[in-house]
Amino acid sequence: MLPGTLGRATDSNLLRDMLDVSMERTKTIADRVSRASLSSKDGFSLTPSGEAPVNGDDAIDIESEMVSLADEQLHFEATAKLLEKAYAQLRLAIKER
């Protein structure tokens, strides 16, 4: 492949960067959830209602974190589809030559 063709012909660089940012956000959310669930000695500290116990300023709302995780998953999947489409368009353009 010609060097730099993919970046000039498509938005692939931007889309790949967006996927990287999405992965980092997912890791951050997963870290917060894990800290909430590992704050007790038995390794899991959610109450039967599914909420993390309140430990002062470090209280983490599991429900909002899971909503954030679902939102980030949708964002990642949409970006991945756009990147897949960009690659398919580039493949089609190369095949036509």
Notes on the structure:
It is a single chain. By secondary structure, the protein is an all-alpha fold. The chain has one domain. Helices cover 67% and strands 0% of the residues. The chain is built from three helices and no strands. The radius of gyration is 20 Å and the shape is rod-shaped. The relative contact order is 0.16. The mean pLDDT is 77.
**Overall spatial form:** rod-shaped
What percent strand?
under 5%
Count of alpha and pi helical runs = 3
Fraction of helical residues:
55-70%
User: Class by helix and strand content?
Assistant: mainly alpha
Mean pLDDT: 77
Record field, number of beta strands: 0
Number of domains: 1
Alpha-carbon distance between the termini?
13 Å
Task: Give the ordered list of helices and strands.
Answer: HHH
- Indicate the low-confidence ranges by residue numbers: none
What's the Cα radius of gyration? 20 Å
- Characterize the largest beta sheet: strand count, sense, and whether it forms a barrel: none
Compile the SSE list and pairings:
Elements: H1 5-9, H2 12-37, H3 62-95
Helix pairs in contact: 2-3
